[in-house]
Amino acid sequence: MLCAHSSHGQDSARGDEISPKNDTSFRYPAELDAAERPYLTKKVLWGFIFAVNHEKLRVTSGNNFNSYDSLKQVKTPAIWGFNWGLSMSVKLLPCLRLVFTPNVGFVERDIYYAFSGKQQHVDSFKLQNTFINLPLEIQLHSPRVFNTDVYLIAGGEYTFGTKGSNIAFANPYTSLNYSYGLRRNTLGLSLGGGLTYSAPYFKVSLEAKYLPGIVNLLVKDGTVYTESLNGVYNSGILFVCRVER
Question: Whole-model pTM above 0.85?
Answer without folding.
Answer: no
